[in-house]
Design a protein that fits this description.
The complex is a heterodimer of chains A (317) and B (668).
Chain A lengths: L1 H34 L9 H11 L2 E4 L4 H20 L4 E2 L9 H21 L3 H32 L4 H10 L5 H17 L18 H4 L5 H26 L5 E2 L4 H27 L9 H24 L1
Parallel strand pairs in A: 2-3
Chain B lengths: L1 H21 L2 H29 L4 E5 L8 E5 L1 H24 L12 H14 L3 H19 L6 H29 L7 H6 L4 H19 L8 H7 L2 H26 L6 H23 L3 H29 L2 H36 L10 H4 L1 H14 L6 H14 L7 H33 L6 H4 L6 H19 L1 H16 L26 H22 L4 E4 L17 H16 L3 E5 L10 E5 L3 H20 L8 H22 L1
Antiparallel strand pairs in B: 1-2, 4-5
Helix pairs in contact in B: 1-2, 1-4, 2-3, 3-4, 3-10, 3-13, 3-19, 4-5, 4-10, 5-6, 6-8, 6-9, 8-10, 9-10, 9-12, 10-12, 10-13, 11-12, 11-17, 11-22, 12-13, 12-16, 12-17, 13-15, 13-16, 13-19, 13-20, 15-17, 15-19, 16-19
The chains are: A mainly alpha (317), B mainly alpha (668).
Chain lengths: 317, 668
């Protein structure tokens, strides 16, 4: 019985992030357009785009293999599971024992692995350039993310996200290592979500040609799943940011209706603020050359390492 | 008694080697490989039984070898585990070879040495005195050298065999000296006596340095790795799988046996050496792997990386043990042994895949492969799972051991030494970097070999490999998945071994809900590959179902879009070199001194334009070139000694004798 209830609550969490994700993408686009003094598409436009893509016929390249057709489902499922494992409204949710922060990062790495392979499947130059650059960016973003995890886990004493959230909401002191980790985390999040200045989510014909070039051959329902997964990943990173660095208001699972509603409002507010900050950041900066990206991410790795060493030194004294 | 059974297995291996000499034709190949398979399964069952029941260590003394010493053999949990790993790899390789062996052009150069190689490896693990250890070690080295030289008409292979022989001799020599020092002036060569003896710290350090060199050269620690990517790919693919998947593990066994068991407690700073070597090896290995275009060489360099990961975990175990943190040391040791098992599984699987591709196309270079997922569907599936597992992706087995290593790193701040406190996070960063680069490397390996459009006629005409080879690959694939989903079973199985080495095993995992694992008792850091697999499988399945029920199922095949400019020539797609170019640009200029030269003919000249990339292995320049130069210099100078008269030779002998006697007299 308990298993069924736990499963139902997990399914509810999955549906929650699933339905919320395109909205956050729409919100960022809307704010960006407004900042550029454009009308911009409505916030609900990504939902319509997804519905339209699902209705459309799928065109496959003649030599596309089963991997190309399976990859969107795998990428979608892996990203969804990762996003559902990050606490949104409540910590200590059932099945939270399935993965700690390292496993969540690794789940995203799995999704990327299959997407990069799909980019190579048809054998076009666009797919190849996208995949090779994606893995280059990931090869620095992942260590940076792990070092940041490391520095946070050292303070919180755990890599479990619920434990980190609980620790951070009671820990009032401001630490220098948190600031370093926060900056590093934001840099990684920008790179991982293919945002400006690392990549441009609005086009695939710019010289960056990373994420959008990699998925160029996809159409119809496959493209819909990949776009949805991209929104989910953005939601995941904002939730992660909220859970680790601003866990105020988050409820413990089973804490009652009032606490849960409060936590829901807090969570939606945090998502809105995160999306707005991303939009402001994106319109105020120019995109960088692709070979400046390693320097950008190298700085993130160094920030993570520095935050960790700082923790070690403080702890040792 | 299991130890008798295992020694009988070794004898059976040697007998099969003789059968390989006596028999001819296809029958020989079937007899040798099927026989090796049966023997390996028997030995695997024996090793597994000891692990399961964990009886007290059993010993055996055979009246062979040095008269006053005899040959000691001992089976304790550690050797049982390594016997099981070695013979698991051997069983898979033998099964694969029943099918793959028919493509062998020179079976008479493979069949006699193959079982001898297996027997040698098993015997190294069972040996319990220095003499039998070294003799088995050399049997293993020489048999594998003969297998490397199986295709001796290839010039590259001759060079590879020569370098391997030099390095194997060097490694054996270092171990010989180490055992000489371990045995002491009384010559107590039995491990039991070595374990009891007392040594000064300086002597212990010297011994450990020699052991690190001797076993590290065999395992492929940077900078002693240079022979490995030459020799491993040169052998037939099932032997490459054994050399990479199993022989490097025998070297790791040698290190664990001596460093954790025989020499006694070590000073903490030794862990710094091991950690630093492991970290450098992991990163350099995978960076070299990324630059390769030869599929088998890429896999061999990836072995270097994985050996680095194992040594990182061993270094952590040494550091924790020196600090008296037994639980943390147990966790690190568990991670190391788990990775030993994992790497034996997926590296063998990947080498089998490369062998199947080689048999189907005759090509090892990824520049001439591509599109094989359409022609070798099942091989492609197995290779894909192997690639995902070695890239440490959940829910497969590679992720579990890396996760355990990371969890061990998280325990490091409680250590006392500042050097370790500052070094361990840096090693953690190197481990993370190598894991991310490994994923890039295997996207390249799988993508260039199996995806895209075929880059040569051979790749167009390829066909699926035979059923027996596929059975071997699917067996390993299933194990990679099973160990990823139920890692607790392995961790519990490793506990008695780890307890014997560092005093405390990892936490009991069998009671955890949903097959999740916890690194140390009471920790909230949990991971459950089983749950993740269920979640991902259910969400992917449900999504596919919903999409196919509600969305239109229309699907049309058309030409590739490629932004409107598809090029019909497969040469225009991304090649292995172009795929690695961004990473080469980021890391290569520093690490490999990568240089790109473009030769553009002047207008009107019909010569083709050329683009060349040169990479250098810095280990060659820094370590080997000076040594080789010195040897050449010294031999040129000493050349005249070859042309002395007999009187002068006798004089030389006389003076050498007097000198040694004087040294001895002063020593006493």
């Amino acid at each position: 019985m308990a298993v069924i209830l736990d499963s139902l609550s997990s399914i509810a969490q999955m549906l929650f992030v699933l339905l919320l994700a395109p909205g956050i993408t729409g919100l960022v686009r809307k704010i960006k357009a407004q900042l550029l003094l454009r009308q911009g598409p409505p916030v609900l436009q990504p939902y319509r785009d997804l519905a339209r893509l699902f209705r459309k016929e799928t065109v496959l390249a003649q030599n596309a293999s089963w991997l190309f057709r399976a990859a969107p489902y795998l990428v979608f499922a892996l990203t969804l599971v990762a996003a559902a494992l990050v606490p949104t409204v409540a910590t200590e949710r059932p099945f939270a024992l399935a993965a700690d922060l390292i496993a969540i990062i690794a789940l995203l790495a799995s999704a990327r692995f299959f997407l990069a392979l799909a980019g190579l499947d048809v054998g076009t130059s666009f797919g190849g350039i996208g995949s090779s650059r994606e893995v280059m960016i990931a090869s620095l973003a992942e260590p940076a993310m792990l070092m940041i995890t490391f520095s946070i886990a050292l303070v919180a004493g755990s890599t479990n996200l619920s434990a980190i959230a609980e620790f951070m909401s009671t820990h009032v002191e401001v630490e220098v290592s948190f600031a370093l980790a926060l900056v590093g985390f934001i840099m990684v999040a920008i790179a991982e979500n293919a945002r400006i200045p690392v990549d441009n989510p609005a086009t695939h014909l710019e010289l960056t040609m990373v994420h959008e070039a990699m998925v160029l051959e996809y159409s119809g329902r496959h493209l819909a799943l990949i776009e949805w997964a991209a929104s989910l990943k953005l939601l995941l990173y904002i939730s992660l940011l909220a859970t680790i660095f601003a866990p105020w208001g988050i409820a413990t699972f089973g804490a009652g209706f009032a606490a849960a509603s409060l936590a829901l409002i807090a969570y939606l507010g945090k998502l809105g603020i995160g999306g707005a900050l991303l939009a402001v950041f994106e319109v105020s900066i120019a995109k960088m050359r692709v070979f400046r990206v390693p320097e950008f991410l190298g700085a993130a790795v160094m920030l993570g390492l520095l935050a960790t060493l700082l923790r070690m030194v403080v702890r040792g004294l | 008694m299991v130890i008798e059974l295992l020694l009988l297995c070794v004898a059976a291996y040697l007998g099969l080697g003789l059968a390989g000499i006596a028999l001819k034709g296809r029958a020989a190949s079937i007899v040798v490989y099927a026989g090796s398979f049966a023997v390996a399964i028997t030995a695997l069952a024996g090793g597994a039984r000891v692990l399961w029941e964990s009886p007290p260590a059993s010993e055996m003394l055979l009246p062979i070898g040095i008269p006053w010493l005899g040959a000691h053999f001992r089976l304790d949990p550690l050797s049982a585990f390594f016997v099981a790993v070695a013979n698991l790899g051997a069983a898979a390789a033998s099964l694969f070879a029943i099918g793959y062996g028919q493509h062998e052009t020179a079976p008479e150069r493979v069949l006699p040495f193959y079982p001898a190689f297996l027997g040698g490896m098993t015997l190294v693990i069972l040996a319990a005195d220095a003499f039998s250890f070294l003799v088995s070690w050399e049997v293993m080295s020489l048999a594998s050298w003969a297998l490397v030289m199986a295709h001796h008409r290839d010039k590259e292979n001759i060079a590879a065999g020569y370098i391997y022989l030099v390095m194997a001799a060097f490694s054996g020599f270092a171990l010989l000296l180490a055992f000489g020092l371990l045995a002491g002036p009384e010559g107590n060569y039995a491990f039991a006596a070595i374990r009891e003896a007392e040594r000064s710290p300086a002597l212990t350090s010297l011994i450990l340095a020699l052991v690190l060199v001797g076993t590290g050269a065999k395992a492929g620690l940077v900078p002693l790795h240079v022979w490995l990517p030459l020799a491993h790919p040169a052998a037939p693919s099932h032997v490459s799988a054994l050399m990479s998947g199993v022989m490097t593990k025998v070297a790791v066994y040698g290190f664990i046996r001596i460093a954790f068991d025989l020499v006694g407690p070590l000073e903490w700073w030794w862990s710094i050496v091991v950690l630093a070597l492991g970290g450098i090896t992991a990163v350099m290995g995978v960076l070299y792997a990324l630059m390769q275009h030869d599929l088998k060489r890429l896999l061999a360099y990836s072995t270097v990386e994985n050996v680095g990961i194992i040594f990182i975990a061993l270094g952590l175990a040494l550091a924790f043990r020196a600090n008296g943190f037994q639980a943390a040391a147990g966790l690190a040791m568990t991670a190391a042994l788990f990775h030993v098992l994992n790497h034996a599984l997926f590296k063998s699987l990947l080498f089998f895949g490369a062998g199947a591709v080689l048999a189907a196309t005759g090509e090892r270079s990824m520049e001439r492969l591509g599109g094989l997922i359409h022609r070798m569907k099942l091989t492609a599936f197995c290779f894909l799972v192997g690639s995902a597992a070695i890239s440490a992706l959940p829910p497969l087995n590679g992720f579990v051991s890396e996760w355990l290593t990371f969890q061990a790193i998280f325990l490091s701040p409680s250590m006392e030494q500042w050097a370790l406190i500052l070094l361990v996070p840096a090693v953690g960063a190197m481990l993370a970097l190598s894991a991310a680069l490994a994923a890039a490397c295997f996207v390249k390996a799988f993508g260039m070999t199996f995806l895209g459009r075929p880059r040569s006629q051979q790749a167009v005409g390829a066909g699926e490999t035979d059923g027996v080879s596929l059975a071997a690959m699917f067996g390993l694939t299933a194990l990679c998945v099973a160990l990823g989903l139920f890692p607790g079973i392995v961790i519990d199985m490793l506990a008695p071994i780890v307890r014997g080495l560092v005093g405390e095993g990892a936490t009991v995992q069998s009671l955890q809900p949903y097959f999740s694992i916890v690194p140390v008792a009471g920790s909230r850091n949990t991971y459950s590959g089983f749950l993740i697999f269920i979640f991902v499988a259910m969400s992917a399945g449900l999504t596919a179902l919903l999409v196919h029920v509600f969305a239109p199922r229309k699907l049309r095949r058309g030409p590739a879009w490629d932004c409107g400019f598809p090029d019909p020539s497969p040469q225009t797609q991304y090649s292995p070199a172009s795929f690695a170019q961004p990473i080469r640009r980021v890391f290569g200029t520093m690490v490999f001194r990568a240089r790109e030269t473009v030769t553009m003919p002047p207008p009107g000249d019909m010569a083709p334009a050329r683009f060349e990339v040169t990479l250098r292995d810095l280990a060659w320049d820094a370590f080997y070139a000076p040594v080789s130069l010195f040897i050449q210099f010294a031999s040129a100078r000493l050349n005249y000694l070859q042309f002395l008269t007999i009187r002068r030779y006798l004089g030389l002998v006389f003076f050498a004798l007097v000198f040694l006697l004087v040294v001895l007299a002063l020593w006493q």
